[in-house]
Design a protein that fits this description.
Distance between the termini: 11 Å
Shape: globular
Largest sheet: 5 strands, mixed
Radius of gyration: 17 Å
Number of domains: 1
Strand content: 15-25%
Number of strands: 7
Number of helices: 4
Helix content: 25-40%
Order of helices and strands: HEEEEHHEEHE
């Protein structure tokens, strides 16, 4: 894993000075209890299903990941030299915790697991992702999703 204290001084300082967006309000939407929620995964690991198109380095769109995808058919486009992919290679649940969600659903701790999940590249500012995020919100609504597990990578 890349650690900030291991970067050269100039690059470390650059990363510390990157502006983070500020939003005027925090949306709040009440919903059902956790045991009744339908949960989808939204990752920024640049995940895509074998046969789909990989992400480019500045992609602001997303890829759909079916809930029945097999581990060896889920690939990662994350291309940063600062990103260690070995965790994903050993256990896909590190960036796509579908097995953990299924276990929670089987125990009745969540209502159900969504049929589809989503991945962004993650190397793009939030402002560029807004159009895709709005589109994705509609897909989540149509699938009856009432909670999203956000996996920032």
């Amino acid at each position: 894993m890349a650690r900030l204290d291991t970067f050269p001084d100039g690059y470390r300082q650059h990363l510390l000075e990157v502006a983070c967006p500020s939003f005027d309000e925090t949306p709040f939407v009440p919903g059902p209890s956790l045991a009744e929620r339908r949960v989808a995964i939204i990752s920024t690991a640049g995940l895509y299903v074998r046969g789909d198109r990989p992400f480019t380095s500045i992609a602001s769109d997303y890829r759909i990941v079916p809930g029945d995808v097999k581990a060896n058919d889920l690939l990662m486009s994350h291309i940063s030299v600062n990103y260690d992919r070995s965790g994903f290679q050993q256990d896909w649940n590190v960036v796509f915790p579908i097995d953990r969600l299924r276990e929670l659903a089987e125990r009745g701790q969540i209502g159900s697991v969504a049929d589809f999940h989503y991945s962004f590249m993650g190397a793009v500012g939030p402002e560029q992702l807004e159009p895709s995020a709005g589109e994705l919100a509609g897909l989540l609504r149509r699938d009856g999703v009432t909670a999203a597990l956000l996996i920032p990578v």
